[in-house]
Design brief:
about 120 residues, single chain, seven-stranded antiparallel β-sheet
């Protein structure tokens, strides 16, 4: 069950220690959507859990030392912090969600650009 802070629109989705450093974790977001949490150099980002190339779950991907998240199906890469495409065959950036970390917990809010 996802705990939602309705006033701010953020839901508690995981503990920071559940996301491997230099890794990814698939979770359910506050609205029931599949999310991919990525931890890179101490920062946590949240994206829709599907590659924009052919919808493979990105939470099964690999975080690379260059700061990219690689889809293991066809090798598309995305920036771990922004979701921007870094390597083909993907051409569309990832959908990114607002994230805040408080008390060792990760809270995910609305998609970037939404309130």
């Amino acid at each position: 069950i996802v705990c939602i802070d309705r006033q701010r629109g953020f839901g508690d989705v995981a503990g920071v220690d559940e996301v491997p450093d230099m890794g990814a974790l698939g979770v359910e977001g506050p609205g029931g959507q599949s999310l991919c949490l990525v931890r890179f150099e101490g920062q946590v980002s949240a994206f829709a859990d599907e590659c924009t190339h052919q919808a493979f779950p990105l939470s099964l991907g690999e975080v690379r030392a260059d700061g990219s998240l690689e889809c293991v199906w066809h090798g598309a890469r995305f920036d771990c912090l922004t979701g921007a495409v870094r390597r083909d065959p993907a051409t569309d950036d990832l959908t990114r969600y607002a994230v805040r970390v408080d008390g060792g917990r990760i809270f995910v809010g609305p998609r970037d650009g939404e309130r």
